């Protein structure tokens, strides 16, 4: 069985999974719509790029409330097909009617791996999708976008955003010991056995820049125009240069995505770096079991591998090899982290 066939079967079997249930909740969509950095990046990339969208057929993969589809209609698209699997599709249809765009935007309820395009449309010129998860690749939405690309995107068509980059930094969490010791006495109950599995979970947190101790290191990139539709898995060597002396007890993952532009427009970048304004993705942190006592210009070296996990492949395993030789500590370690979707 081909990967596309396996992908379609797995997603169909997992349609009622926690992942899809979470996107049925209006609170989830409110959190995304309230993310001004996210919204401004997509609006700038679409609405201020009329030359790219004028008279084009657009496919919105995982449209949610339909906001990106409405942006595309505002930018001059002749037709927008908004595909959404959850019951939010019914609300999206109503929102589009309330904004008098029902002649341009057509909502199709179902999985993108299962539906057919309406009105006899066989090809689209542009695909828009907010496909990014925490640490870029969690949720595996990227594979649904590439499925749509392979099936419907015309030759030379565009995907927004088109490229995702993953980055790594070293930092200090002043609350780590307190959070671990919490489990030792919960209302007089010893839950210390939870400390070990808790320490193996990647956590999503907002990391203040004051806690950063290293420069950033590029880890991985995906160009959706050319990448094969396969599960995202890789291993990447890294080297972090220490910029401030201190204690590194966590590694911080963040991403940025790039939007293609027309001939007369500047490209748009959406970043989730700790140095950038807050987004609902925040950052993904991997806590170390052995802290690194570092000085300026020290080097922290290692290898990070990511592989899909879970029946639907929407979670991620992180395998971290770490090597550090400093004046106070020498560490050679390996640790695995596992996230659910």
TrEMBL record:
Gene3D superfamilies found in the cross-reference section: Hnrnp arginine n-methyltransferase1 (2.70.160.11), Vaccinia Virus protein VP39 (3.40.50.150)
Alphabetical UniProt keywords: Methyltransferase, S-adenosyl-L-methionine, Transferase
Domain Protein arginine N-methyltransferase, residue spans: 165-326
A GO biological-process term: methylation
GO cellular component terms given for this protein: nucleus
GO molecular function: histone methyltransferase activity; protein-arginine omega-N asymmetric methyltransferase activity; protein-arginine omega-N monomethyltransferase activity
Record's protein name: type I protein arginine methyltransferase
Protein's organism: Drosophila mauritiana
């Amino acid at each position: 069985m081909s990967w596309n066939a396996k992908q379609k079967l797995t997603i169909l079997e997992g349609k009622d999974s926690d992942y899809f249930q979470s996107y049925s909740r209006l609170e989830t969509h409110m959190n995304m719509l309230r993310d001004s950095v996210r919204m401004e990046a997509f609006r700038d990339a679409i609405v201020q790029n009329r030359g790219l969208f004028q008279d084009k057929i657009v496919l919105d993969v995982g449209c949610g409330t339909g906001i990106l589809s409405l942006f595309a209609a505002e930018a001059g698209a002749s037709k927008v097909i908004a595909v959404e699997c959850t019951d939010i599709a019914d609300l999206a249809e109503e929102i589009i009617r309330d904004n008098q765009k029902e002649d341009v935007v057509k909502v199709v309820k179902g999985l993108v791996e299962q539906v057919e395009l309406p009105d006899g449309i066989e090809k689209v010129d542009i695909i828009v999708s907010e496909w990014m998860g925490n640490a870029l690749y969690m949720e595996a939405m990227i594979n649904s976008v590439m499925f749509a690309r392979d099936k419907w995107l015309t030759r030379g068509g565009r995907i927004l955003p088109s490229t995702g980059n993953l980055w790594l930094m070293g930092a200090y969490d002043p609350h780590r010991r307190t959070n671990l010791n919490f489990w030792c006495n919960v209302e007089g109950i010893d839950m210390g056995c939870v400390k070990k599995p808790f320490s193996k979970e990647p956590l999503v947190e907002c990391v203040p820049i004051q806690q950063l101790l290293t420069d950033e290191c590029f880890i991985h990139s995906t160009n959706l125009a050319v990448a094969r539709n396969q599960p995202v898995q890789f291993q990447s060597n890294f080297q972090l240069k220490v910029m401030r002396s201190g204690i590194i007890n966590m590694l911080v993952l963040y991403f940025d995505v790039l939007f293609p532009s027309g001939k007369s427009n500047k490209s748009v970048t959406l970043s989730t770096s700790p140095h950038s304004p807050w987004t609902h993705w925040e950052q993904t942190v991997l806590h170390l079991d052995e802290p690194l006592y570092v000085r300026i210009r020290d080097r922290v070296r290692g290898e990070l591998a990511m592989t899909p996990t879970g029946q639907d492949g929407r979670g991620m395993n992180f395998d971290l090899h770490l090597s550090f030789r400093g004046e106070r500590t020498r560490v050679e370690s390996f640790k695995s982290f596992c996230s659910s979707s």
